[in-house]
Amino acid sequence: MAGYLIAVSSPESVATYASLGSYGTQMSEPRGYWRADQEGTFADYASMAPGDHVYFFSNRKIYGIGSLVALSDGCAYQNFPGATSTATTVDIATVKSRILLDVNGIGTSIRWICTFRPDPAFFRRGVDMDDALTYRPDSFRMLRSFWGRSFIKLDDDEDQSLIDVLLRANFGVKPTEDGAFSDRSAVTHRRIQRRLRRGHRLDATALVTLARDGQRLKHEMTLEASMAFQLSRRDRQTVRHFGRWDYVTHQLVASPPKPPAYNDWIDLFGYSRIPGSSTIGTYHVAELKKGTASAPDVIQLMKYVDFVKDDYCFGDYSLIRGYLVAAEFEAGAVEAVRREGLRYYTVGRRPPITRYWGVHAGLSLIRYRVLANGRVSFARVGS
């Protein structure tokens, strides 16, 4: 399973959310549109799946462990109907009876929420960030770059390492003892379920509609969020062009350890498991452009493909699918795919076999369009 590390202001806030079994990011009010960082927050909620783990971070310490649970359709919801489509200040009096989560009277500042339960417990004993990073350091990628974000998503390997650290630090602590935060999640979830309506469903179409510019989008982050949503929901047309992703995330760090301000970030990343197993069979890397893609964008994508090949695939390009997604493509971009997107690599030993990776063998150019209903559709260039 994946994991989410959520930053909160104080250990008291950890106790509040851990006990409630529900969390929502408090955001500044939008001014008629959603900023890129707010759309990025939506993208994080959009990729949540039941069973993913939840952790909290405050004052250099990590607390956990919880698991996301679905109360109806998914485990993430709009905090009130119209929370995504209303990109302006909301009068709490108009939505008070429909708000799912309100902490200290900030309900309208919380647009999206998730629901979870202790698994096995949210331990009071937190683990210092440095102690976590020194355990299996090669497994931690996103944790090293956690800076300036409300929360981050951890892949299966990083998630398991964090579970190991927390369970070992709290070995012998029983969930019913003082070593764990109180659990009132069942009460909270029953109250949320009573209020849940169709209008609380998380849906990217409202986000897309606000950022629409004809058949294009005004922000690349909107494209990230909509693709994360459609891939996570296994949208048929999206899966047809990108395959079925079992893990979806955005803004994945693609650099060796260094100050976060200088990191490179993969727009959209994921992987697919071999059917019937937990083994990863394919890694997906996508570079997104809201407008027209050019030759340098192909080079940028290949930089990320090479990073994934070294960091995840042990030199085997056959495990990677790369996608350059844009509204249009310059002729130079198409030519660069043939020239810059070509890789030869060797697999096996007795005998060694030389293989080709590139266009028609792992690399695709995909054009996007915004439809009238707020969905984003895709078409492979050259097909």
Structure notes:
The protein starts with a strand and ends with a strand. With 383 residues, the chain is of the alpha+beta class. The model has no long low-confidence stretch (mean pLDDT 94). A hairpin with a 2-residue loop joins strand 9 and strand 10. The protein has 11 helices and 20 strands. Helix 2 packs parallel to helix 8. It folds into 2 domains: 198 residues, ph1033 like fold; 176 residues, Trna Endonuclease, Chain: A, domain 1 (3-Layer(aba) Sandwich), CATH 3.40.1350.
What's the CATH architecture name of the largest domain?
Roll
Identify the overall geometry: globular
CATH class of the largest domain: Alpha Beta
In terms of DSSP E residues, the strand content is: 25-35%
Uncertain residue ranges: none
Number of domains: 2
Q: What average pLDDT do the residues reach? A: 94
What kind of oligomer do you see?
A: single chain
- Major sheet, described briefly? 8 strands, mixed
Number of beta-strand segments: 20
What share of the residues lie within helices?
25-40%
Count of discrete alpha- or pi-helical segments spanning 4 or more residues: 11
CATH superfamily of the largest domain: ph1033 like domains
**Which topology of the largest domain does CATH recognise?**
ph1033 like fold
